[in-house]
Amino acid sequence: MSPMLVGGFLGALLGAGLLVVVLRLPFLRRPTVDERISPYLRDLGAPDVFVGVVDSRSPFYAILRLFGPSLRSAAARLERILGGANTVRRRLQRAGIQRTVEEFRIEQLLWGALAFGAGLVISIIAAAFDTGDPVALMVFCLVLGVLGVLGRDTYLTSQVRRRERRLLAELPTVAELLALSVAAGEGPAAALDRVTRSCRGDLADELERVLAETRAGESLVRALDALADRTGLLALSRFADGLAVALERGTPLADVLRAQAADIREAGRRELIESGARREVAMMVPVIFLVLPVTIAFAFYPGAVGIRLIAG
């Protein structure tokens, strides 16, 4: 790569940065309606996204507060491009993440910016060693930025799956503890309170939220229905529905909980057997494509060498 191309590439980056700075100057930027009326609606303003997330003594706090409005506007544009706010909100609830869709979009932008910055560093190093085309390097940076944005969404999906596995693993134990508490003479609310104080985990946190809703005036049946809607797991929905039906119809709650715990353990055993069968099939791939060719090569290579020596 010639010095002229390197200079043009760096000059274009500098010009783009100066253009952004100039366009964000106060006397050139037209304020929005929200910015004009927000000083008169101080109590109704939107909460700061970064309050409670970053320590005010951190050097990053001033940077985040400085670029907060720009990040919010960029997050709104990203939301208009990607869409699916209801799906994202649903997945955040299932992952147990107490964040809004706007905060999640800002995280996606930060992931994309970090990936773009990493690609930019790689491009500058490649340009310094006179390798690579400037256009290709810029496309490489943009692709990394897009992958960073999409990577945060993929990571959210993995967070949902991990939390669902933890909930399913904790559910049989919690159901048996509830059955023991109810059989000992405690009521449903008292049994839930004892379990939340005795256990630690995601399911205990969800049950604690159910108790908080009941203390706020919500009925236990509706709070359990809300738990089933939040988690989205079939086993947990069946567990919550069984509790709700037992409370409404007066069915012996201890027997229902024991039966549900046994069903959940049996479902987990079946899933483990199915997972083992799938992994057994997957293990055939390295055997067929790696081990078997090497074995055939070791078996036939001496014969091929011997035939070659005899023919020679």
UniProtKB/TrEMBL annotation:
Top-rank taxon, per record: Bacteria
Annotated membrane topology: Multi-pass membrane protein
Entry keyword Amino-acid biosynthesis: no
Any one GO cellular component localisation term in the record: plasma membrane
Name of one Pfam family that matches: T2SSF
Compartments, record wording: Cell membrane
Spans traversing the lipid bilayer: 6-27, 109-129, 135-156, 281-301
Domain Type II secretion system protein GspF span(s) in chain numbering: 176-298
Alphabetically ordered keywords of this record: Cell membrane, Membrane, Transmembrane, Transmembrane helix
The name this protein goes by in its record: Tight adherence protein C
